[in-house]
Write a structure and sequence with these properties.
The complex is a heterotrimer of chains A (about 260), B (about 325) and C (about 300). Chain B is an all-alpha fold and about 325 residues long. Chain B is built from 13 helices and two strands. In chain B, helix 2 packs antiparallel against helix 9. The two termini of chain B are about 35 Å apart. Chain C is mainly alpha-helical and about 300 residues long. Chain C has a two-stranded antiparallel ribbon with strand order 1-2. Classes of the chains: A alpha/beta (about 260), B mainly alpha (about 325), C mainly alpha (about 300). Chains B and C meet through helix 5, helix 10 and helix 12 of B and helix 4, helix 9 and helix 11 of C.
Chain lengths: ~260, ~325, ~300
């Protein structure tokens, strides 16, 4: 797989991205790329600037310098919602769903965003069966098919995380920025999410930010390591495991724990 | 159940003028018209505030604008309802577009203060417009001309016109809320950031919603000008904006009949208290304070405990 | 001549701006620290003016009336905070607007019950009732000059208080970052009550000082409250410096606009245009200013939060 994708143009290309908050450098000359069909994991200690980077890639935070290319176009200054319509979609580390809507309505909203204008004032949404058919298909994909009519607020934490990813998937992304999809999940719940993400890579490229090293080493084609806002290494899981800088700066113990579960 | 109640209320509203004359209650035909006009205005505010979560404190600006358009058009010889009422909606919509375009760039307390400030600006503009009466306001020689063999001078006829507008407003509100657009607006109230990251340009939806509400409120203004045959800047005073807000908090935020219920409660309360005391506002003040502190979902919330989408807005 | 006239109008603008600052300062701190919108701030201004007028009539001493009105209004403000406002900090803005709007209705009718519907008079102290020679050829109301002096003194005091004292730093920290103030282990509840009472006292000062110039009447608080909102939107929520700059801008633009815009219109167009459109145009100047600031700096000129 790696040898095939290496030939094609990257879906996402980040060039020398910088972001400062006062004296603090949150993103320091970050360059990385994600290839079609690839799961590219971004790991690093807390406070390394991973979420800040996602904010810039998704368009909620303007970078100070550098550029972001998506499918060959410069999207550095594009509004967040416009990036979504082009296929660059994020999910949140802290669950952000429509808690007072049903699970099905949550996903139907995301489908609605990508299927035609929503400046429609007359026809009831409930008559638009196409929206709900597609939403149900997404729910099946993220493992929530039997929870469609539950109020999102009443889902278990793990299910809310699945819905979080479902919202992103429903927008028919070409590329997903998954910000710690397994945050706060128990091992059992994580086990459900790993094949889900694995199944997405058929048609979506993924930038995966994750603390769960077991998941990272099972899913990732390549891994980049972010420390203090800088990418200190990029490579295959084996490269990263062997990298002395990475060991010193970050992995150490975590790697030991993960090596048993590698796919 | 609700459908039956709605139809019963509608039947009652249709029968009222016919019963009022023999019962010697014709004074109340005018009062009922006024209640319905405020119900339309409050319902339009409910669209942006209750459904959309935009805490606009300047809604009276559109009410007053609609009223002034009808009165000013009449001084220029335009007295056809079919011209001046749509014109009132158009002008109110343009004003709403201007105010909304600027104030919707902000949120939270900024949005509240800015909508309030712009409404106050409109208030001062009309006080300053000496050509159209300034502080004194404008008298209308007669009500708008409807044609069709009808005359709005007749209070019962005017009542039915207002009722028609109210029913149409409520029906349109329902269509709009159930349609794609309404879905988007309600979801923005709940989680605007997420709406952006699933691909909606929330600003455009909020602005459209704001303009629609402004136009409907402008139509209510056109009606109030006809009801009293007199307009003055006080129609757009911020106390009027506050009254509209009170109506929908009393009636129920984001509840389809919230504006109607609230207008009835508020104006009937006012009418009932005012013969006994000149201090009716203090009573309303205490009632409002109690409702906000102890029953934040309004009267509709008291009756309808199943409702999950409790109002409140994210302001 | 016209130079002197311009100077006089500038002084009037400064005087009005400084009084606006007294209101805006308290309001912006409540916004910033508690993230709470308080419409009843104008009612405290009204109460301050009424109490000052009552004491001044009873004692015949304006100088005694002002500090007493400050204390009384501060106490009322703190009681209000304890009884109502405190319950609103965690509520949404909609509830805050409605509850404090209810307070306005209650305050206005209460004032009508106690003092009657007619405006009451508040006379300036006799020593300040006449004009004063600022320099040869320039006389100015000595009372207005006193307002400017008091306003500048309070602004300076407030600046020292907020930047130089520990409490002031806490307040500032709270206005830009609530968690930080909590983390510093302050008794936040007590701090809120005190800040609110302090804001009420500033309101009363403005009300008492402006009473002799404007009318002491029901509803006086609302018009000036909206101006204070405009000030805060221009200056940036939670910023004392922003409130000062915004107040002076609004005071100057409003006063100068009302005087000079009709004059300019008369010169450029015709007297008829000036009398028809002049007042309307002059009254919207500050709102245009606000819209312009918002367009370029949506967070105000001095955003307290980064």
């Amino acid at each position: 797989m790696n040898s095939a994708t290496r030939m094609t143009e990257p879906v996402l290309e980040v060039r020398a991205l910088c972001k400062r908050f006062g004296g603090l450098v949150a993103t320091d000359q970050v360059s990385l790329d994600v290839r079609p069909g690839e799961v590219h994991a971004l790991i690093g200690p807390n406070g390394a600037g991973k979420t800040t980077l996602v904010h810039q890639l998704s368009g909620t935070l303007p970078p100070d310098s550098g550029s972001i290319l998506f499918r060959g176009d410069d999207v550095t200054h594009l509004a967040a919602n416009a990036r979504v319509l082009r296929g660059l979609v994020r999910s949140y580390q802290i669950t952000s769903i429509f808690r007072q809507h049903s699970v099905l309505d949550n996903v139907a909203l995301a489908v609605q965003a990508r299927s035609g204008s929503s400046f429609r004032f007359w026809r009831p949404v409930r008559d638009e069966s196409a929206l709900f058919d597609e939403a149900r298909a997404v729910l099946a994909r993220v493992g929530l098919a039997d929870r469609a009519d539950v109020l999102a607020a009443n889902l278990a934490h793990g299910e809310q995380r699945q819905l979080e990813v479902g919202l992103a998937v429903a927008t028919r992304p070409a590329m997903l920025l998954l910000d710690e999809p397994m945050a706060g999940m128990g091992p059992e719940e994580s086990e459900r999410l790993i094949p889900l993400i694995d199944g997405l890579r058929k048609d979506v490229s993924i930038l995966l930010i994750e603390h769960d090293m077991d998941a990272v080493f099972r899913l990732a084609d390549r891994i980049s390591v972010l420390v203090s806002g800088r990418v200190i290494a990029t490579g295959t899981p084996d490269d990263i495991r062997a990298n002395a800088d990475v060991k010193r700066a970050y992995l150490g113990d975590e790697l030991e724990a993960a090596s048993g579960g590698e796919a | 159940m609700q459908r039956a109640l709605t139809l019963a209320a509608l039947a009652l509203a249709i029968a009222f003028p016919m019963a009022a004359v023999p019962l010697d209650l014709d004074f109340y035909i005018g009062f009922a018209s006024r209640v319905m006009i405020y119900a339309i205005a409050a319902t339009s505010l409910n669209l942006i505030l209750g459904y959309g979560g935009m805490v606009s404190f300047g809604h009276a600006a559109f009410f007053g604008t609609g009223a002034y358009v009808v009165a000013i058009a009449m001084t220029h010889g335009i007295d056809s309802l079919w011209v001046s009422w749509p014109l009132a909606m158009l002008v109110s919509g343009i004003v709403a577009l201007g105010i909304g375009a600027i104030s919707l760039r902000t949120r939270g307390v900024y949005f509240i203060m800015i909508t309030l400030a712009f409404a106050q600006m409109m208030f001062f503009v009309f006080i300053g417009l000496k050509a159209y009466g300034g502080e004194e306001g404008l008298n209308m020689p007669h009500r708008s001309v409807i044609g069709l063999g009808l005359n709005l001078k007749n209070d019962a006829t005017f009542y039915y016109v207002v009722l028609t507008v109210l029913v149409a407003t409520l029906y349109l509100l329902r269509r709009l809320i159930d349609a794609r657009f309404g879905r988007v607006v309600e979801a923005i109230r709940e989680n605007e950031a997420r709406m952006e990251t699933i691909g909606f340009s929330t600003y455009r939806y909020k602005l459209t919603c704001f303009v629609i509400a402004g136009m409907v409120c402008g139509l209510a203004g056109a009606l109030i000008a006809n009801q009293t045959r007199y307009v003055n800047p006080n129609l757009m005073h911020w106390i009027v904006s506050g009254d509209m807000m009170i109506m929908i908090i009393l009636g129920g935020l984001g509840y389809r009949f919230g504006g109607v219920l609230g207008a009835i409660v508020m104006l009937v309360l006012d009418e009932a208290i005012s013969p006994y005391t000149t201090y009716s506002k203090i009573v309303i003040g205490f009632v409002l304070l109690a409702v906000v502190l102890f029953a934040p979902r309004g009267l509709a919330g008291l009756f309808d405990r199943k409702r999950v989408r409790a109002g409140g807005g994210h302001g | 001549m016209s130079g002197l006239f311009l100077f006089e109008q500038a002084l009037n603008g400064l005087q009005f701006g400084l009084m606006l600052f007294l209101l805006a300062a308290g309001l912006t701190l409540v916004f910033g620290i508690m993230d709470t919108i308080n419409l009843a701030h104008g009612s405290l201004y009204m109460l301050g003016a009424y109490i000052a007028a009552t004491i001044a009539q009873a004692t015949g001493s304006f100088v005694m009336a002002v500090p007493l009105a400050l204390i009384a209004t501060a106490v009322i403000g703190m009681l209000l905070e304890l009884a109502v406002l405190r319950r609103l900090y965690t509520r949404d803005h909609m509830s805050q607007v409605l509850a404090t709007f209810a307070l306005i209705l209650i305050a206005n009718d209460s004032v009508r019950m106690i003092w009657g519907p007619q405006p009451i008079s508040l006379n300036p102290p006799a020593a300040l009732s006449g004009p004063i020679d600022l320099f040869p050829g320039m006389t100015y109301s000595s009372y207005r000059l006193a307002i400017i002096v008091v306003g500048l003194a309070v602004a300076a005091l407030l600046y020292l208080l907020v930047t130089r004292t520990r409490t002031g730093m806490l307040v500032r920290a709270g206005a830009s970052n609530r968690e930080m103030a909590t983390a510093m282990g302050t008794n936040i509840k007590l701090l809120f009550t005190c800040v609110f009472g302090f804001g009420a006292a500033l309101c009363a000062l403005a009300g008492a000082m402006l009473g002799p110039i404007l009318a002491v009447q029901v509803g006086m608080g609302e018009d000036i409250l909206i101006l204070a909102f405009v000030v805060i939107v221009i200056g940036g929520i939670g910023s004392i410096r922003g409130a000062l700059v915004g107040s002076l801008l609004v005071g100057l633009v409003d006063t100068m606009g009302r005087t000079f815009l009709p004059m300019i219109l008369r010169e450029v167009f015709s007297p008829q245009v000036a009398s028809n459109a002049g007042p309307a145009l002059a009254s919207i100047l500050i709102y245009v200013l606000m819209a312009a600031v918002l367009f370029w700096k949506p967070q105000g000129l001095f955003p307290a939060r980064g």
